[in-house]
Specification:
The complex is a heterodimer.
Chain A: E1 3-13, H1 14-18, H2 28-31, E2 43-48, E3 59-63, H3 71-77, E4 81-89, E5 116-120, H4 126-133, H5 139-142, H6 150-161, H7 171-192, E6 198-199, E7 201-205, E8 209-214, E9 216-217, E10 237-247, E11 250-254, E12 262-266, E13 278-279, E14 284-291, E15 294-301
Antiparallel strand pairs in A: 1-4, 1-12, 2-3, 2-4, 5-7, 6-9, 7-8, 8-14, 10-11, 10-12, 10-13, 14-15
Chain B: H1 19-26, E1 30-34, E2 39-41, E3 49-55, E4 57-63, E5 69-76, E6 80-81, E7 95-98, E8 102-108, H2 109-117, H3 121-146, E9 155-156, E10 166-167, H4 173-179, H5 188-197, E11 199-203, E12 208-210, E13 218-233, E14 236-243, E15 248-249, H6 251-256, E16 263-276, H7 277-282, H8 289-326
Antiparallel strand pairs in B: 1-8, 2-7, 3-6, 3-8, 4-5, 4-7, 9-14, 10-11, 11-16, 12-16, 13-14, 13-15, 13-16
Classes of the chains: A alpha+beta, B alpha+beta.
Chain lengths: 304, 332
Amino acid sequence: MCRMLGYLGAPVLLDDLLYAPDSSLLKQTVDAQMLSMLNLAGFGFAAWSDQWQGPDAPLCYRSTQVAVFDKNIQAMAKKLSARALVAHLRGVPYHAATQVNLENVHPFNFEGLPLVLAHNGDLAAFSQMRFDLVEHVRPEFRRLIMGSSDSAWLYALVVSQLESPAGPNTAEALVRAVERTLAIVRQVRERHGIRRSSSVNLILGDGRNLVAVRFTFDFGVFDVAPFQGGVEFLSAWYTLGRDYGLKDGEWKMVAGPERADSVIVASEPLTRDVATWVEVPEYSALMMTRDEAGCHGRVVALDV
Amino acid sequence: MAEPDVDLASVTAFAGLGPGLLASLRASLEPFAVAAGEALFRQHDPAEGMHVITRGCVRIQGRTLADGLSHLADIGAGEVVGEFGLVDQGRRSASAEALEPTAGYFMPREQFERLLFIGDPAAQAVAREIRALACRRTRATLAAMADEAVGPGERRDVAAEPGAVRSRGEEGVLEMLQALHQFRHFKPVETAEVLAAVEVLEAPRGAVLASAGEAAAGLWIVLRGAVRTGLDRAGGVEQLLVHGPGKLVGVVAATDGGAQPARLDVRENALLLRLPRPAAHALADDARPTAVKLLDLVSKQLVADLRALSRHQGRKRSMAALNATAGASAHV
């Protein structure tokens, strides 16, 4: 399992999301509050800023270093402000068969496409499914899949289901692409008789939209010892507001939902006090857009 | 400290306790006193017990998204605060601050649980009152939700031809039950007693366990798969809760004996244990350890579900407020 974070709103210093809060994403490398695993297999982020060259294209950073020891992230985080961010800490089973390499570090992004994707969870028996998924990936994207993990293929599937992968897309279009992807995966699972609980929590972003998906195939179905993600639905939380920062000793947004211009979504809250956070419902997607009309969004059901 | 202004017998949570039980209960209570403006507890603090207010007044407030503050209630003498903290090992869902000098008694959860598990009648009576309160609040919350709008995107389809629920043999079930952390503190003989009292059911995705308004059919324990609690809406169901392995479903109707307050259907192919209604209802008067432990799980589930429903309601309202301001076309 992994940890991930998405942000959309007024420009914010990356340090304020990645390091500063008392349960910041980087602190979750070794001290996640809602996960009983370490997340040691790499870190990556995609960020967007109107101040950077090509503001619609994300700045991507990936490293296989244990994130808390990576001085480069820390140096960048203290200098860069972004209006949108998708970041991911990779956690994998403690097993020599696991591939820890740059190609499997999230968020995934094909060059030239605005959409990035981060995944928390795993598809059971993915090696049985992989080759059945090829036909659902657009030919031009098949050769771009460098990662061996289920997550790399989920990204390729999602961008393949978009009518316009190069964008621009609406949040609704992103959610429809996710629904089609989940339907494909469900079909392939059924074809192979795969019934084990498999979590597909996702954060997708393209700089203008942010989508967080909380979904599990066959939740609660397992035949071996209970495992996290089988007994408990993997978490995803969000908070809304404006003027994110340290206030009264707490990292939070203020001003009430009616004046919100920013959203943070994460696999768990960035603060140990979760009072100003709420869960993304199970089998649902939170879809947020920031445009001329302001920050708006909704929660939709994923009845796949 | 000064003697309390209110006799414990008049405290709602202690209704029906005779002098003997009240005296027994009083021995477990610790006096407390706070000045005006002082907090009894803050939201997100570990829930360590219940306060009985005998003098003064306490304001209950909850923080919401974007640091909003919601005034929930003012609690005065003769009432209790944080009662769900007696059965729930979670965190406070709101803050309690004294509006004036306030005094009373505190009942620590650990002490309460100890009394409950040795079969203390006073503790059992308090637990019964807390369950009844949780049921009333759950029904009130569901009724309020039913009156609120739901966006088309939040409705989920209902299976056109849901599969049938069917009985299954007990092979492997005992081991599955014992492996669930909710049942780890049950002795093998107690788990066997649970199994002897239930019916093992296989329920396919989409199967309806109970419809809103129908008579209680009992209590379900989810062994595998997942059950959804939802509100019937035009064209679909609004999902409220999803319960996976180890969770109990149908707890409100099984506890208060009323009609099912919501629809229960199977979200993922499930293996369930159904405790029939008479057996579920009899738990409250059964002093055997198995019944006491099962009833404790019911109490915890009632409180957890009520907290989750409140969060669902808060989430919907905050998104509606956000979209109303942004002028978005799509509203929740």
